[in-house]
Amino acid sequence: MAERNLDFELARQIHTVLVLHFLEGLKQFEIAQKLNMSTSKVNRLITQGHKLGMVKISIESPFARLTELEAQLVGGTALETAVVAPTVSGNAETTLKQVGLAAANLLLESLRDGDVLAITGGKAVSAVVDNLSPEREMNVTVVPLTGGVQGKYYTDVNHLVTRMAERLGGKAMLVHAPLFAESRTQRDMVKNMAPIKEVFDLARSASVALTGIGSVEPRGSSYYDLNPVPESDRKMLVGLGVAAEFMAHLVGETGVIADYELNSRLVALSPSEISSCRKVIGVAAGLQKVRPVQAVLNGKFLNSLVMDEEAVTALLAEMGRMKHVA
Q1: Which of 33-42, 158-167, 213-222 has the lowest mean pLDDT?
Q2: From CA 126, how far away is CA 128, in angstroms rounded?
Q3: What's the pLDDT score for residue 2?
Q4: Mean pLDDT of 210-230
Q5: Which residues cross the membrane (predicted)?
Q6: Fewer Cβ atoms within 10 Å of its own Cβ: the N or the C terminal residue of the chain?
Q7: What CATH number is attached to the domain comprising 56?
Q8: Which of residues 42, 62, 82 is at a domain's end?
Q9: What is the pLDDT of residues 245-288, one digit of tens each?
Q10: What average pLDDT does the segment 125-135 reach?
Q11: Predicted confidence band at 1 (pLDDT cuts at 50, 70, 90)?
Q12: What is the distance between the alpha carbons of residues 14 and 51, in angstroms, rounded to a whole number?
């Protein structure tokens, strides 16, 4: 079952190429340029589409439901791009891998030589790194959007930056600073240190940003991997309407950065500082990310989202409910 599901990402690429070629009339070299892949790969995908019986009078694909969800997300939000990956029932790890595969391909389609790519830490971003398979080395610079938390492979953003650069064949520039300073004054001092300021200035000018979206609910929360918060504070945050973690910032359900003391001590860029990026890709998997993603969408922090089918279905239902209530 898992192996069959893992073929969906290849099927998605075939479907995309067939639509561009047969329905939109693009030539193979135009498709290669648009999707940032070689012409030979485009030709190979078209050939595979023929062999799989996907080219008849119309293009048939297992992605009809997923592409319909993608269109609903783009139509109902400020997103420019949405990619919905299949949910593997009862297997959160494999579902995350599916989302990582889809996000990895979207990232490769989005990057160009000379780009700066800025990323956060997190399990979802780690899944993207794990599933990157570029056809060639890319002349890109990868930088962190935040300071780091050591101890886990996915909270150490410098570790992920280094791995991402290695996978892409580019170079990494690191921020050697903790995620949280002891005070706002210390935060300002750290961020103004020349080596750190240089990297954060690069991050501000990034063409592409890749970010996870964290939850703050006590059960399964990824925010508390970054900073141990007392149980009383956890309940208080939820009670105050804090719904998400984005770039290590706590975000309210309306999309406003929360007035919480830890936010003032972050050694990190704020969401507003990457608003000029060509592509800001958010990655999330699982039903527990529905409320956090909705908060981030309310804040208009993203222009691209990659999420799994079950979670997107629940997100659209909740958006519809809120619209009806309003």
Answers
A1: 213-222
A2: 5
A3: 41
A4: 75
A5: none
A6: C
A7: 1.10.10.10
A8: 62
A9: 999 999 999 999 998 888 999 999 999 999 999 999 999 999 99
A10: 96
A11: very low
A12: 11
Only one residue has tokens 């309003």, namely 326
Q: Identify whether residues 152 and 292 lie together within a single domain.
A: yes
User: Rounded CA gap, 64 and 254, in Å?
Assistant: 32
Q: Which residue has the tokens 């950065």?
A: 257
* CA–CA distances in Å: residue 149 to residues 135, 143, 229: 32, 15, 14
Q: Bridge partners of 83?
A: 306
Q: Are residues 89 and 71 in the same domain?
A: yes
Measure the CA–CA gap between 139 and 114, rounded to whole angstroms. 6
Domain boundary at 41, 62, 83, which? 62
Distances (CA, A) of 66 to 12, 280, 282: 10, 21, 17
Proportion of the chain above pLDDT 70, given as a percent:
90
Residue 99 identity (one-letter amino acid): V
Cα separation, 60 vs 53, whole angstroms: 8
Q: Is the dihedral of CA 178, 180, 186, 189 positive or negative?
A: positive
**H/E/C letters for each residue in 104-170?**
HHHHHHHCCCCCEEEECCCHHHHHHHHCCCCCCCCCCEEEECECECCCCCCCCHHHHHHHHHHHHCC
Mention every residue, 6+ apart, whose C-beta is less than 8 A from residue 154: 121, 122, 123, 125, 126, 160, 225
Among the listed residues 125, 204, 140, the one whose alpha carbon sits nearest the alpha carbon of residue 172: 140
